[in-house]
Amino acid sequence: MHTPQAPKLRTSAWVCLGMMPGMVLAQETPPATPVTPPVSVWDYSLGMRWQANDLRHPGLGLRPQLGLQFGRWRLGPVDGENWHRFGQVQQDNSLTYDWLRLSHLRTSLSASIQNLDQDSTLDAIRSGRKTVRGKASADYFLPNRWSIGMVVTHDLMQRGGGTTLSPNWTYRHPLSDNSTLLLSQSVTWGSHAYWQAGHHLHPETPSHEGQGWGNWDTQLTYRHRFKPHWVFFSQIGASRPLGPTYASAPPLETLYSAQMGVLYFSR
Q: Which of 5, 74, 97, 190 has CA 20 to 30 A from 57's CA?
């Protein structure tokens, strides 16, 4: 007996069979993943800095600043995302290799050309005795906004640059998401050759006579990121020489310095 529902059942079956290949293809096709643009291995920063090394003598020196990074190699500050919060207080334009970059520990190795007879921003090309000063630094971040560190420098060519050892500690006080106040202190131990080279370059300033603890330095730094790529910074520093000093050097007194500037970061 032929029932009226049979044609409908046959039609539904053919429709289901026709949809099955599409359902199978839909299940086999992987979901589309967003394509992220390639990350550039080059980063840079550009800026200007006004600096007074001794506030007893009026006048500000204007100096350009350049930062460049390729992989783990860098020159100057390049981390625009974190420099206003975690960057090192003491400026360093040496060629640096970031060795370990952990969550609470950062270590680096660097080297720079030092002119033992001239003291300027063009030490590498001016005449005079030159040497290569190597530096190793380590910073450990504590959970309570403090960090402790150690900096060791050494004359790699043994030409009279000497050796230094500088423990330091820094307290970081965030004023906002884009502003930070940093207070840093350090003390420097130097060999006899190191203090002698410094006295030769600056005989008008107090200088340690032999090896030992010779400088106590304090810096108060303010950094503010006022745009995604722009940072303003200012710093006041005090350096207290520790005796004994050369007889020809002036009496011990605290030297004050200041600097301020702006930086543009590529990231």
A: 190
